[in-house]
Amino acid sequence: MLPPAPSHRILIVSDAWQPQVNGVVRTLTALAGELRDMGHEVDVIGPNRFRTIPCPTYPDISLSLLPARRLIRMIEAFRPDALHIATEGPLGLAARRWAKRTGFAFTTAFHTRFAEYVKARTGIPVRPIYAWMRRFHSAGHGTMVATASLRDELSGRGFRNIRPWSRGVDLALFKPEPREDFGLPRPIFIHVGRIAVEKNISAFLDLDLPGSKVVVGGGPMLAKLQREYNDAHFTGPKHGEALARAYAGADVFVFPSLTDTFGLVILESLACGTPVAAFPVTGPKDVLAGANGCVGAVDIDLRVAALRALSADRAACRQHAETYSWRACAETFLSHLVPLMAGHEGIVGDP
To answer: What value does the mean pLDDT take over residues 223-234?
Structure first.
C-alpha cells in the first residue's frame, strides 16, 4: 500500500471516461471526487484527451487512436505517486506497456466482462479472451474486483492477487421522494441502463407481467427494441434528479443482465426505495445478499423474481443502500494502491 501521507498524486488511466455514460465512468467520477475531498491530487486520463475512432458495433464509445507517445508525456508530466489502470483498451494497454518497460508498479481493476461482450457481438469464444485478460492483469500489483462472486470466478480462471473493492451510491441524489408519476397502469416495472445487446433487456421485455414496463436509457439497441416491443414505454436517457424520480416512481426495478460485474443501477434503485428483481448472478446476488430477501428477489425465472419483488419493503431498500458509500469505496481503493517505485524494489505493496 501507499506510505502514510497527507496527500498523494494518483493517476488513473481509463478508456471509459466522460462524456461516456456507464457504470465505469460513474464509478471513476465518484472515486476521483472522493479522493480529492480527502486531500489527494487526482488526474484521470481518458479518450477525451486524444484523437479517437468509434468503437466497432458501439459507436457511442470512443477508442483512442495510437495514444502511447502522448500518454507517456502526460504520465511523466503528472509525476504520480501511484498509477491505476482501469481498463484494457488502447489507453490501458499503452499505460501497461510503459509501466512494464520502465519497471514501475501499478494496479488494475476488472470492471467489465469484455470477453462476454465480444462474444455477444462477434461469436468469438470467451476462453482465449480471458487468457489475454489474465496476462494483462497479471503484470500489475493487484486487480480490484467489485464482488465476492466475481473474485471466486476470476480465481477459477487463473487470476491472482485479487483485491476486493466495492461500490457506493449518491444517497443525496437517489432518494425515495419525489416519485415520478408515469401516468401508466400499475405496477410499474422499470429498467434503467445502456440499451445494448449484452444487457439482455429483451429478457425483461418478454416477461408476461401485470401493469406497465418502462425502459430508461439510450444505446445502440434502442431503435430495434422500440420497434419490437411497442407495448413498452421507452423514455430515452434521464440524468440527475429526473433519473432519481424515475427510479422512485417504479414499483420494481428489473435487472436482466447476465454479464455485469456489479450493477450500480441496483444500488441507485434501492436508494430510491424501489426493490430489485434479477437473475441469481454476479452483481445482484452479491448486492442483495444479507438483506433477508426484503429488498427484492433473485430467481432463474425472472418473472417469478419480478412478482416476488412487489412485496418487498421499500424502507428496507433504502436502509440497505445506506450501507454503501463512495467514501468507503475511495478508502478501499486507496488502501490497494502501490507506490510507483515498488516495481523497481521488487516488493509488492511495500513503500
So the answer is: 97
Q: What is the pLDDT of residue 320?
A: 96
Q: Is the C-alpha dihedral spanning 41, 66, 24, 154 positive or negative?
A: negative
58-78 b/e with 16+ CB inside 10 Å = b?
beebbbbeebeeebbebbeeb
Residue 284 near residue 263 (C-beta atoms within 8 A): yes
Please report the domains of the chain, with CATH numbers, ordered by start residue: 9-168+326-345 (3.40.50.2000), 188-321 (3.40.50.2000)
Q: Which three cell numbers stand for residue 24?
A: 465505469
CA atoms of 48 and 18, how far apart (whole Å):
7
Label the pairing between strands 143-145 and 107-109.
Answer: parallel
| pLDDT (0 to 100) of residue 347 | 32
Other beta carbons within 10 angstroms of residue 223's beta carbon come to 12
Average pLDDT taken over every residue of the chain: 93
In three-state secondary structure terms, 20 is coil
Set of cell numbers at residue 2? 501507499
222 vs 195: CA distance, rounded Å: 6
Angle CA(112)–CA(117)–CA(120) in degrees, nearest 5?
160
Q: 150 near 110, Cβ under 8 Å?
A: yes
Instruction: Report how far residue 234's alpha carbon sits from residue 229's, in angstroms, rounded to the nearest whole number.
Output: 10
- Residue 116: per-residue pLDDT: 85
Helix (H, G, I), strand (E, B) or coil at 298: strand
How distant is the alpha carbon of residue 180 from its chain centre?
25
Cell of 173: 441524489
For every residue of 245-256, DSSP letters joined together read: HHHHH-SEEEE-
Name the residue with cell 452483481: 283
291, 270 contact by CB (below 8 A): no
Do the Cβ atoms of 339 and 82 come closer than 8 Å? yes
Q: Which residues, in sequence order, are CB contacts of 276 under 8 Å at separation 6+?
A: 252, 253, 254, 255, 266, 269, 270, 284, 287, 288, 295, 296, 297, 309, 317
pTM: 0.89
Sheet strands side by side (includes 233-236): 233-236, 212-216, 188-192, 252-255, 276-278, 296-298
CA–CA distance, 289 with 312 (Å, rounded to integer): 14
